[in-house]
Amino acid sequence: MVNLLKSALCVSAILSTSLVAVPVLAEDNKMSEDLMTEKIGRAKSAAPASISDEATIVVDGKVVVEGSNGWTCMPDTFPDDGMPMCNDAVWMEMLTAMINKKDYTATKIGISYMLQGDRGAGVSNSDPYHPDPKNADDYTETGPHLMIIVPKAMLEGMTDDPSSGGPYVMWKDTPYVHIMVPVADK
Predict the structure, then answer these.
(1) Cβ contact 58:39 at 8 Å
(2) Structure pTM?
(3) Where is the signal peptide (predicted)?
(4) Residue 14: predicted pLDDT
(5) Separation of alpha carbons 84 and 186, rounded Å
């Protein structure tokens, strides 16, 4: 839950920041140029270069690279967890709703890449707010994957079993339901 609250602050800062280039100086962020370069590289590693090379890069809630393709990449899903992700606008809407515990209804397809996987952080497959996901009965870890938001009706008949060997539904009984698509072994 603590990570979720930290994430809420980070995502809220991301979404309240206009997507205008913000000059990033090591003194302003108390971050060395080398560390900033590493974080930008980690953010870009979440998606194929064809997406991440033109994406907006957000580090610690601040836009550090203004993109041109509508994608947003971050070096950390939750503050300092090292799980990079790249999201389209639909996915960012859903993530914002989830962080703020607001209702969300998918009306179109949204995509998120996590090509570095969850790096052992794992989650509850049924409860995005589980207070101790590593001890959840349905704890799961996923290696490199992409996530797809679709209108709920399109999920009928799809498994929610992460061990099924293919795509599966995560957070099935929540407004934040989405498809997990493993793209490599853990």
Answers:
(1) no
(2) 0.80
(3) 1-26
(4) 42
(5) 15
**Measured CA distances, 161 to 116, 119, 153, 164 (Å):** 21, 20, 18, 5
Quick one: pLDDT band at residue 129, thresholds 50, 70, 90? confident
E-state strands within 55-186: 56-59, 62-65, 72-74, 85-87, 110-114, 123-124, 139-140, 145-149, 168-170, 178-182
Name the amino acid, one letter, at 16.
S
pLDDT of residue 174: 94
3-state helix, strand, coil in the chain (%, to 5): 30, 20, 50
**Residue with the two structure tokens 């099924």:** 164
Q: What is the pLDDT of residue 61?
A: 86
Helices (H), 45-182: 49-52, 89-99
Closest CA to 87 of 70, 66, 64, 105: 70
For residue 65, the tally of other CB atoms under 10 A from its CB is 17
List, as own/partner pairs, every contact residues 21-28 make where C-beta atoms lie below 8 angstroms and the sequence separation is at least 24, other chains included: 21/63, 21/65, 21/66, 22/62, 22/63, 22/64, 24/59, 24/62, 24/64
